[in-house]
Amino acid sequence: MSTIADNIGVVSQRIRAAAEAVQRDPDSVHLLAVSKTKPAQAVREAYAAGLRDFGENYLQEALSKQVELTDLPLSWHFIGPIQSNKTRAIAEHFAWVHSVDRLKIAQRLSEQRPAELPPLNICIQVNVSGEASKSGCTPADLPALANAISALPRLTLRGLMAIPEPTDDRAAQDAAFATVRDLQASLNLPLDTLSMGMSHDLESAIAQGATWVRIGTALFGARDYGQP
């Protein structure tokens, strides 16, 4: 039975191979361990194997883990849909938010980010496949939203995040991720981050410029949604 450390080694090699295949520096691609539904002990194991960045979708679960893991120097990323009544806790307890998709949420995060903390790193989530079930702003709304967010204090707009419609078709994967890359390039803002790619499509995402790949299943195994 493979351990989390073994899985990290396998995923790290996939990232390296994918980057080298398109003449990218493998160190330009960062691994975000998606620890939602997994216990704090799994995060400890991943930390012991070298990981420092962890992504969570569910606020209360994340805050509970943070309390259990206060002894570790971890960087927490919020990657799930954001309700207005959750912004204060997110602003206070996370280093990154990958899933901002409307100005109201960004404004609240800006207002509620504690002054003693560094600016909150923000990615705008774009609904690149137009799926009704997915969060994210439309590509048409992106330029105005990006310009507005980039002007807010206490935030640093870093780039875009996307979760394209799942497919095993490599050409379709490439096309979706290339669209995100091209949208970011069209904004004419000083952005350095593309948060895209998961366990099943990280190779395509890296080929199209991903700087964060968000990996859960390939590191921790299938998620148990029966857990609190």
Automatic annotation (TrEMBL):
Naturally occurring in which organism (per UniProt): Pseudomonas rhodesiae
Keywords: Pyridoxal phosphate
Keyword Glycoprotein: no
Record keyword Membrane present: no
Modification N6-(pyridoxal phosphate)lysine, positions: K36
Required cofactor names: pyridoxal 5'-phosphate
Alanine racemase N-terminal domain span: 14-223
Signal peptide: none
PANTHER family for this protein: PROLINE SYNTHETASE CO-TRANSCRIBED BACTERIAL HOMOLOG PROTEIN, PYRIDOXAL PHOSPHATE HOMEOSTASIS PROTEIN
UniProt GO molecular function: pyridoxal phosphate binding
Domain of life: Bacteria
UniProt-recorded name of the protein: Pyridoxal phosphate homeostasis protein
Pfam families in the cross-refs: Ala_racemase_N
Family matches, as SUPFAM superfamilies: PLP-binding barrel
Annotated CDD domains: PLPDE_III_Yggs_like
Family affiliation: Belongs to the pyridoxal phosphate-binding protein YggS/PROSC family.
Stated role: Pyridoxal 5'-phosphate (PLP)-binding protein, which is involved in PLP homeostasis.
